[in-house]
Structures are given as structure tokens and as C-alpha cells.
Design a protein that fits this description.
With 94 residues, this protein is mainly alpha-helical. It has helices at residues 32-46, 50-70, 82-93.
């Protein structure tokens, strides 16, 4: 079923065929450092304080040190699963 395009009065618009493209096979791989850089840029744009940004960097440094020692095969953010994140949380809580 095709979606109808809302038209503004007085301006002729052609009907568009809107196709749905699957994004299931599309995947972007970010390393943890790349994801941190993107995250920090977003936080700077939001107006986060410098100390907050330093704390984010410090926490990610702990995570990358942990991964390099205990799980060196983890390179990309997509390698981290929710259950693994839970284990990391309990590890750092100790």
C-alpha cells in the first residue's frame, strides 16, 4: 500500500513512489575509540562540562584496559552484548 503525500495548496507535486529499503544487512562497525569520539563530540555540542567529558574518557579507558587484558578479541562496539555489559558492570562494581 503506497503512502499518500500531503500536498500544500497551490503547489503541484508529483506522486512519489516510496520504496522500503531494508537496513537489516547494513551495518557500520565502530571501534570503541571511534564511538567514544563521536559520543564526546555530541556531548560537547550539548554543552557538557569539561569535567564530565574527562570522566567519560576515564571510564572508557577503564573499559578498554579491561578488554585488552581479558577479551583482546573485542575490537568493535558491536562485539559487546547486553549480557557482557552486565558482567563488566559487576566487575567494575567490585
Amino acid at each position: 500500500m503506497a503512502k499518500k503525500v500531503i500536498k500544500q495548496r497551490g503547489t503541484p507535486l508529483k506522486e512519489r513512489n516510496q520504496s522500503r529499503q531494508s537496513t537489516d544487512n547494513f551495518k557500520i562497525e565502530y571501534t570503541i575509540q571511534e564511538a567514544l569520539d563521536i559520543f564526546l563530540r555530541a556531548k560537547v555540542a550539548e554543552g557538557a562540562r569539561k569535567r564530565t567529558l574527562r570522566e567519560y574518557v576515564r571510564h572508557i579507558r577503564y573499559l578498554t584496559e579491561y578488554l585488552s587484558v581479558y577479551h583482546p578479541s573485542f575490537i568493535y562496539v558491536s562485539d559487546l552484548s547486553p549480557s557482557f555489559n552486565k558482567r563488566i558492570y559487576h566487575f567494575f562494581k567490585k
